[in-house]
Amino acid sequence: MSEPHVEVVGIGKRFGGVQALRDIDVTIARGEIHALVGENGAGKSTLGKVIAGVHVPDEGFLRVNGKQVAYRSPRDALTDGLTLIAQEISLVPARSVIENVYLGREAHRGSFVDRRELKRRYAELNERAGFGLPGEIPVGALRLADQQKVEILRALARNAELIVMDEPTAALTADESEKLFDIIRGLKERGTTIVYVSHFLEEVLALVDTVTVLKDGELIRTAPAAEETPERLVTAMVGRALDLAFPPKQFPAPDAPVVLSVRGLARGKALNGISLDVRAGEIVGLAGLIGSGRSEVARAIFGADRRDAGEFELDGKPYAARSPRQAIRAGIAMLPESRKDQGLMMERSLVENVTLPHLEDVSQGTFVQHRLEHRKASTLMREVDVRAARPTARVATLSGGNQQKVLFAKWLFRRPRLLIADEPTRGVDVGAKAAIYELIHRLAAEGMAVLLISSEHEEVLGLAHRVLVMRGGEVVAEFDGHEVTEDQVMAAAFATETVA
Question: How many helices (H) and strands (E) does the chain have?
């Protein structure tokens, strides 16, 4: 084994009354890819941020290059060549890609920024990374996956010796993730150490050298990746064996009524003539690459975006919601792609988040009946198994999986006829994923129509009764959920020859 790059010695970290890390000892070898895995709330992101100087530990210390250090900020860690690509995007939306990549590290000519030199540096960096991102475009105009690439480029531009990557593929397609893996392997070959925080166990085992498992802020074990399997890791992470398979599909009856009918949906260049049906008790999966138009279909149905053309029917009657409020009243609910930006009020309580769209149901006149509100919200949170210290806790204090369950509770307040779930398991751990799969399966079995959108093809294939593949704003293929394969979906998404 190569010499230690970073040694974590007896690290403990508290946030208020929550013990996030407890007596952690980990050695990260120089030039290796070292994964930190665990359920949401296990402490893996916290440990990564301690290493990168974002969090100051309450107990213990770090040893970097054989020397004990006490970082008070990320800038301190960067002086030793340690940096972080955070799970949450931390870019300046109004500034260009180049300005974000070299923020704080600009080239100067006298007292002025040397833009020509920055462009030259960026061109070299962009070519080496293979992302092909235009440097002059404002970051705020980029989709989430491309913003993630800017974060990666910024870390590469700092020539860091150790990079902590916290869920770097959460917003990337399979193809984009593979390109990132090639970059990471190239960094390793040049001697860069990677601390890789992820809940995607298959990608961890295919990429990394060493795996450290955390549970409830404590170290379970550190072992070579070659000795691990997804099943062994899950058992270590959750403390018990967990079935990684999807629930058995219960297909709706052939004569099940059509809940939603869409014909000829068009919107600018994003959507062109989309037609689809979703029946009662049916899960219809929308697959395709990021930018194919999947989320735009969902937003148009939910009334969040205006459509240029197209007709909708809900339970056989014309439906034309001009706003999410009208869609909710008609019996449609939507879990948005980003729970933090579009779905939840992170600094408000669980109860407030669950009841916000339904205040008229817990109010008398202009006054909220707080006891009734609390009782109904608590019942729903128990139903979807939200695990929190108390219903009045802020949503921001919950793990990603529990935040996602709060979203489900919010939309189950009034049982919708149609549930649109856009990336329902993004940023949640394997245990929470299994619970969400069971919940979606159960809701469909109860007769609810479900439109499922996911970048994880395995998720679509495992849950959907029918799969529609989108490309360039159009539905280009439809597959029966009995027999569809990932090769078929990928072939349609990439416009390659269809795989039989």
Answer: 16, 24
